[in-house]
Amino acid sequence: MRIEKCAGVYEPEDDSYLLLGIEEIKGRILEIGCGTGIIGLSYARSGSVVTLVDISDKATRCARNNAIQSGLSVNVVRTNMFDGIRGKFDWCVFNPPYLPSEAPDDPTWTGGTKGNELTSEFLKKFSEYSDHAFYIESSLSHTEKGQFEGLSFRIVNELDYDFEVLSLVKVTVDARY
């Protein structure tokens, strides 16, 4: 698979690679904040039906071009998170911008003043589209899980750096909800 980096689009880093190769992710997949498309395209290459979403016109163009260059058929949508998305998916994946910033001016890496604002928005809405999700969380912008009634959280993998811990978190909608 060929992934080209694009100016103004988040370049795949360690956090992106945490979301690759998860065997249980298959079927219909919705990737929120697709950037270059590396995550969703890797699952499309394995036969999944993938919808890539990003708020950035640069990112959606980049992801679409990477899909074409890799010979993969995916649906690419420019929208804010779930706005206008229809239907149910087997999985949602999200590598959010998660770094806190006093002046969150670059949406490719800043997740708001606390850093977890976009993650919280994702967690409030994803269950309308899927019962299962994986997302990345930074120790610099931890999200309190207790505020999300009906969701179960499990850390699946971690990368430990001197300055932060990146966690791959699996979240599931409880069957009773």
Explain this structure.
The chain is of the alpha/beta class and 177 residues long. It has four helices and seven strands; from the N terminus they run αβαβαββαβββ. It has helices at residues 14-18, 38-45, 57-69, 117-125, and strands at residues 28-32, 49-54, 75-78, 91-94, 132-138, 151-160, 165-173. It has a seven-stranded mixed β-sheet with strand order 3-2-1-4-5-7-6. α4 links the parallel β4 (91-94) and β5. The termini are far apart. 38% of the residues are buried.
- What would you call the structural class? alpha/beta
Query: Strand order across the biggest sheet?
Result: 3-2-1-4-5-7-6
CATH class: Alpha Beta
Question: What is the overall number of helices?
Answer: 4
| Relative strand content | 25-35%
Calculate the mean pLDDT score and round it: 92
What percent of the residues sit in helical stretches (DSSP H or I)? Answer: 10-25%
Which word captures the global form? globular
Task: Specify Rg, calculated over alpha carbons.
Answer: 15 Å
What name does CATH use for the topology? Rossmann fold
Point out poorly predicted stretches. none
> Biggest β-sheet, characterized?
7 strands, mixed
Which architecture would the CATH scheme give at its second level?
Answer: 3-Layer(aba) Sandwich
Q: Write down the secondary-structure element order.
A: HEHEHEEHEEE
Count of extended strands:
7
Specify the CATH homologous superfamily.
Vaccinia Virus protein VP39
Number of domains: 1
